């Protein structure tokens, strides 16, 4: 026999107060209306809760997010952890907001302030980034990367002179930062100081060559030399017409020197050497004119070695933008290229040290 059915559109045939044996017992949620509304509400609530929990679950810092939205303020450690999570996720706005909150609680946290400046820099907000970098430095923070990022933001704001200073400070801490060195050279060229830029790059490449490694800045050096050759953007003029500033590399200074019409090379400035020293390779590559004055000369190198050389006189050579003529020198196979007093006597030399950065300034005398 088929199961009896109940049509909800008809009146309830059971006596008042009794459930019909044909109708299922009422749910406690059913007040007499259509129970599908209750079911829909419950299912929707469960679904929404599941979606919400799922959204929380995909966030790497659920506890911090929940506390930030619904609970008490995050602790300092939780704020730092949240900054790391934001940066790992590439959410710079989140990192900036969290760092700002952290600094309101700990305004003397120099590391967090420097980190906030870096986030602002990456968000192209250099105007505020330089403020935070400066506050961090004024508070005693002093790392090479802080100085480098500060220089970058200053340069992007057109404050090139300050950017040059802070780039040099960064290199004073870590001289082998090639990215900082390359950017600094570009700033120097833009300021009309291409020979200082060449000294900056040539000294690095000379040190690399001494260690058996290829030069890193060969292409950039060629670009600067081409600007000097064509005189583009007034590169050969400017402040270097009066004096040439050489930045220190290690404990030495290197001047950009070209023999004849050859390429510029790094020459070690040696005030204790009597004459300028060149190698046969440099003479051959430059095709510079010279004549031999003493076929055999015995000389003592800086490390005490006795070597045989030739006394020569070079027709012309340039030190930075300055041309020297008939320069006494020695041609030495086992020596390094250096400027001795036969060349340096044409200049007044002044060394200076400013905030950890050393320079040698060469000012030509009347004959140069």
From TrEMBL:
Biased composition (Pro residues): 1-14
Superkingdom field: Bacteria
Cited InterPro entries: Aspartic_peptidase_AS (IPR001969), Peptidase_aspartic_dom_sf (IPR021109), Retropepsin-like_bacterial (IPR034122), TPR-like_helical_dom_sf (IPR011990)
Biological processes per GO annotation: proteolysis
GO molecular function terms attached to this record: aspartic-type endopeptidase activity
Keywords: Hydrolase, Protease
Annotated stretches, region: Disordered: 1-34
Protein's recorded name: Retroviral-like aspartic protease family protein
């Amino acid at each position: 026999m088929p199961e009896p059915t109940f049509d909800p559109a008809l009146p309830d045939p059971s006596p008042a107060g009794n459930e019909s044996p044909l109708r299922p017992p009422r749910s406690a949620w059913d007040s007499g209306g259509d129970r599908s509304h209750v079911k829909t509400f419950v299912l929707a609530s469960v679904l929404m809760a599941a979606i919400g929990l799922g959204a929380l679950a995909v966030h790497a810092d659920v506890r911090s997010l929940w506390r930030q939205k619904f609970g008490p303020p995050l602790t300092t450690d939780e704020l730092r952890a949240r900054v790391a999570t934001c940066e790992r996720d590439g959410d710079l706005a989140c990192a900036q907001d969290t760092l700002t909150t952290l600094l309101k609680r700990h305004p003397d946290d120099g590391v967090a302030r420097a980190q906030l400046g870096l986030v602002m820099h990456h968000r192209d907000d250099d105007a505020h980034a330089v403020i935070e970098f400066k506050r961090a430095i004024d508070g005693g923070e002093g790392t090479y990367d802080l100085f480098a990022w500060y220089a970058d933001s200053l340069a992007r704001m057109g404050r090139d002179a300050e950017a040059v200073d802070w780039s040099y400070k960064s290199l004073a801490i870590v001289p082998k930062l090639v990215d900082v060195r390359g950017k600094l050279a570009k700033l120097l060229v833009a300021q009309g100081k291409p020979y200082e830029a060449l000294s900056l790059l040539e000294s690095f490449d000379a040190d690399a060559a001494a260690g058996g490694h290829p030069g890193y800045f060969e292409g950039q050096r060629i670009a600067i030399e081409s600007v000097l050759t064509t005189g583009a953007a007034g590169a050969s003029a400017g402040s270097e017409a009066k004096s040439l500033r050489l930045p220190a590399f290690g404990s030495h200074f290197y001047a950009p020197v070209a023999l004849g019409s050859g390429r510029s090379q790094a020459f070690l400035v040696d005030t204790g050497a009597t004459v300028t020293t060149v190698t046969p390779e440099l003479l051959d590559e430059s095709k510079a004119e010279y004549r031999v004055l003493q076929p055999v000369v015995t000389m003592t190198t800086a490390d005490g070695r006795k070597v045989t050389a030739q006394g020569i006189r070079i027709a012309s050579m340039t030190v930075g933008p300055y041309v020297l003529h008939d320069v006494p020198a020695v041609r030495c196979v086992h020596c390094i290229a250096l400027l001795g007093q036969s060349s340096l006597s044409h200049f007044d030399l002044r060394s200076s040290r400013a905030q950890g950065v050393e320079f040698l300034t060469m000012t030509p005398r009347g004959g140069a």
